[in-house]
Amino acid sequence: MKVIIDTNSLIYSIENKIDIFDFFESKGFEIIILNCVIKEIKKINAKKFKLISEIISNKNLKIKNNAEGHTDDIIIELAKKNKSAILTNDRELKNKATKEKIILYTIGKNSVKKI
Description:
Blueprint: E1 2-5, H1 7-15, H2 20-26, E2 30-34, H3 35-44, H4 46-58, E3 63-64, H5 71-82, E4 85-87, H6 91-99, E5 104-107, E6 112-114
Parallel strand pairs: 1-2, 1-4, 2-3, 4-5
Antiparallel strand pairs: 5-6
């Protein structure tokens, strides 16, 4: 199975030192990070962008190019197309994903949880 990581999840995991990559890799998930998510992080916080870029490089993860458009819409469409799960703490994205019956994960204080 694949999991698409959204912007706030990457930032939250860094801020709270939660290794979302090890969690999903240990469960056999392929991790998808979209180019639009990386662009959002770069706009929001250059310091976190640098740290996240280093982690992605160290974990040998690939950034997937995506179509133009709103990040949440791109994530939803890709998840539907590839039958992927989504990791997010974003309420609006959770609502959209729930309506589409997409598997969701969220990050709590110390762990990742399936919703």
